[in-house]
Every structure is written in C-alpha cells, then in structure tokens.
Task: inverse folding
C-alpha cells in the first residue's frame, strides 16, 4: 500500500523524501487535481495548514474518502476537533491518564505535541497514544491547565507541518517511519509483492483464545500465499490500525472491551473487518439473538426473557438454563435444578443485567458447531460435553476442562443442521460465524451464534486442513479487491 503525504507548500516536500519507496509527498493542489491514483490502494496523511470547513485541508480528507482512500484525519475526526462536546468526552475518558502523566509538573500549564501518536519525551507516550487514538490526526497539540489540583484539557488542535518546531524534525521523521512500519527497529513481515496489509488482533494473556498459536501461523501463511501481508497486533495497538487494509479479530470479542473498539475504529477507518461491529453487537447479546431467531421462526429450545419483576414461581419444570445476555465460552451460563437455585442465580445475574435468558435444558452428548464464512459453509464439528459435565467447558472446581472435538465432512452432517446454520447466519451478516445446534429426538435447535468462533489447529481444520485458513483469507482478499 502506498502512503501519500499531502502538504500545503512545495517547499515542505523535501522533508519527506527519505521516508521510503512506499511514501510520496505532494501538495494539496496536486492531490485535489489528480484523480489518477488507484482508488482504495492509498493511505492519505493530510498535513495541510488548515482543516477548516471548505478549506484545502478539509477537501483533501473529503475527497480521499470519496476516492475510497483512507485519510488521516478523516472528515469525522476533523469535525470532532471542532466540537466542544468531543473535547469534554476526551477529557473525561483520559482524566486518570492525564493526572498520572502530569503529576510532577511544577507549573499550572502544560503543552504536549503528538506526532503520529508519539511525544518527543517518552514518558508522555502513553498519554499521547490515548489522545491520538481518540482524535486520530497525524499532528496534534494539546494545551492543559491545572485547576483545583486537577489537570484538564483547555484546547486540542490538529496542527500543520509548518507548526512543528525545527528542533523536532528528526523525531517527527522517526515517528513517521515507525508509524509506516519502515523504522529499522520495527519488526516487519511485509514482502515486496504484498498487495494488502492485514492486522490480526491476538491477546497473549487470554486463557482460552479463539485460535491457538498453530492456527495463527497458518492464517499468516495463508495471507502470504495470497500475496497479502498479515501482522499480529495486540490489545494496546489500536493506534496502528491506519497502517492496515483489514482487521481480523482473533481474540474473544465483547461489546464492553477493546475488541469492539478495535472493530469500530477499523470500520470507521475504512478497513475490511472480521468480526465487524454489527456482528459483535448482535452475537454477543443473547437477548437480541433470541428475539431475532423467534421472529424468523428458526427453531430454538423453549426460551423466556426474564426481568426483575418476573414471577419466577411460575416456572415448575426443572432443570433450566439461565444465561447472562453477554455470556461466552460457557461462562455466565448456569444450570438451575430447582426454584430456589433459580431465584438465587437470577438475583446474582440481575446485578449485571436488567434482562436474563431462561431456557429449557436439553441433555445431549454433543453440540454441532457449524462454521460459516461469507454465508458459505466452512466446517462442521461435534463439540462433546466435558466429562461428567453438561457443558462443553467445565469451569467448576477452579480448573478448566474441555470436552473432545471431532470434525466431520459436510457431506456427513444432517442437511437440516447445515440449512439451519446458514439461515441463522444470514440474519446476522456475512462475516465469520460458528453456529451451535443441539439435536434432540430427531429435532434440531439453535443454541447460539458466535461471531468469533474457535478455529484451532487439528480441530476445526480436521477435514479440509490448510484450505480452511486459505478460504477465510480469500474472503478478505475478495473484499479488498472489490472496494
């Protein structure tokens, strides 16, 4: 991918001459007049003097979006910079980081300059990165002041290249090189023939990640074989997203943590995203899934949505399954054997959610897991219950035990299971999903749809092997090429 730096004056261009073959600097007038650059293949870094509405800097970002390129800052970021409410939101969200970073400052005023997410003083980099993640402009200047022993943000502005002190020039060049991934100290996996860059979000601290190390290596290989560069990033690397064309999330997703923020930011930046924010929102909430499945007449176990005023004495048939709306990986799901258990567990879960899911218990030896990507069937597994337990994952007793997994050819899976899985996924979107289905007395019931399904080496790939990873990466390639 080509990095295009747009400046206001020709005299500024030589500064960017030594940033690498994939970096080119031009003036705003040249950019606005030139429509010959291939759409979707360029990242535009707008360093113009003025981002005000209807000024050249504004039009550079506006036309970059129209040309399906990826401007930094985006038009929405420019709007946020001029919005007092956005400044208030930023101040509140980084307040603790601001106090920590500036606690040793003697005076009551402080100025911090942020160049591509970094400050010239390394001790302020954590704060600089948080501000950059919120504003997402290449060059930022923040004025802070202290009042009643508390640091606050007074003004925050995107600055132009000509506002950078000459004493900061060498640092700015290094910050740009690192941001582009061309710094000698920056680990790169990119090959000269790579057509697109894909970020794969992983978390080394996660106890049960959706993909193990073996699977991740195969995803990297599959991308490379399709002439794409895939690179691993972590939970703290949201500021790096602008370097990439696509984001593949291989960390358990949640609406309430950084995974959703990554997906949302990537979508706003114009990246191809899997899992996309809509899929995360829909799949991570079991209340939504139940309502959607019911409206589409897709078969599920008997299910009730309960709230704090629900008369639990009406439930007579036990055992039942009670779930928190955002339950995942068997966590937040309990089997209650009697009314007393139900009331006790409901009271505990109601501390976190106003609505809960109550479901009839279906005893089975295994769940079908059907993998679907881009509305096409991908794999089929049987996830067996953990030994002596009613779930696939047994977390009781302080240890985690998992049931066995066997993978089957799609041709050996009941056609009703495959059809049910595909119908369910079409109601969510066209991303990567894993549909859990129970089979009881010849009938099939959807248990849930997962937006971030497990794909581990020698498990889900047990039948088609490397082809599984290649198929998923091919979906990224097709979407990137069709932009």
Result:
């Amino acid at each position: 991918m080509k990095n295009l730096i747009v400046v206001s004056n020709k005299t500024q261009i030589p500064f960017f001459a030594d940033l690498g073959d994939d970096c080119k600097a031009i003036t705003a007038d040249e950019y606005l007049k030139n429509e010959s650059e291939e759409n979707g293949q360029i990242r535009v870094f707008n360093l113009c003097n003025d981002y005000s509405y209807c000024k050249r800097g504004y039009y550079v970002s506006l036309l970059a979006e129209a040309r399906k390129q990826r401007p930094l800052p985006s038009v929405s970021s420019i709007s946020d910079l001029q919005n007092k409410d956005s400044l208030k939101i930023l101040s509140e969200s980084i307040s603790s980081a601001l106090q920590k970073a500036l606690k040793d400052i003697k005076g009551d005023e402080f100025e911090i300059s942020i160049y591509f997410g970094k400050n010239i003083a390394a001790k302020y980099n954590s704060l600089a990165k948080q501000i950059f993640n919120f504003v997402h402009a290449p060059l930022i200047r923040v004025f802070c002041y202290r009042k009643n022993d508390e640091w606050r943000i007074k003004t925050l502005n995107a600055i132009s290249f000509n506002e950078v002190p000459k004493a900061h020039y060498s640092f700015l060049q290094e910050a740009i090189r690192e941001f582009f991934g061309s710094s000698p100290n920056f680990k790169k996996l990119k090959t000269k023939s790579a057509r697109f860059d894909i970020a794969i979000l992983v978390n080394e601290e996660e106890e049960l990640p959706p993909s193990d190390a073996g699977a991740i290596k195969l995803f990297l290989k599959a991308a490379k074989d399709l002439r794409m560069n895939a690179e691993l990033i972590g939970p703290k690397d949201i500021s790096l997203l602008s370097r990439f064309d696509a984001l593949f999330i291989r960390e358990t997703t949640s609406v309430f943590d950084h995974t959703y923020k990554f997906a949302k930011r990537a979508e706003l930046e114009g990246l191809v995203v899997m899992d996309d924010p809509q899929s995360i929102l829909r799949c991570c909430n079991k209340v939504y899934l139940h309502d959607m499945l019911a409206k589409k007449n897709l078969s599920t176990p008997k299910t009730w949505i309960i709230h704090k005023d629900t008369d639990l004495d009406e439930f007579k048939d036990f055992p039942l399954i009670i779930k928190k709306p955002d339950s995942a990986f068997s966590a937040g799901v309990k089997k209650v054997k009697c009314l007393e258990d139900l009331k006790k567990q409901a009271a505990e879960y109601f501390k976190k959610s106003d609505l809960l899911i109550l479901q009839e218990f279906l005893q089975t030896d295994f769940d079908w897991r059907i993998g679907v990507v881009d509305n096409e069937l991908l794999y089929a597994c049987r996830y067996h219950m953990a030994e002596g337990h009613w779930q696939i994952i047994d977390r009781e007793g302080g240890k985690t035990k998992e049931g066995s997994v066997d993978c089957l050819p799609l041709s050996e899976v009941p056609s009703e299971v495959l059809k049910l899985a595909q119908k369910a996924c079409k109601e969510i979107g066209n991303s990567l999903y894993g549909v859990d289905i129970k089979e009881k007395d010849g009938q099939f019931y959807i248990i849930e749809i997962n937006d971030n399904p497990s794909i581990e080496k020698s498990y889900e790939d047990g039948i088609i092997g490397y082809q599984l990873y290649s198929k998923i990466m091919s979906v990224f390639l097709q979407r990137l090429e069709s932009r």
In short: Residues 466-481 form the longest helix (16 residues). The first strand starts at residue 2 and ends at 7. The domain at 188-274+465-483 is CATH 3.40.50.2300 (Rossmann fold). The chain has three domains: 2-180, 188-274+465-483, 362-450.
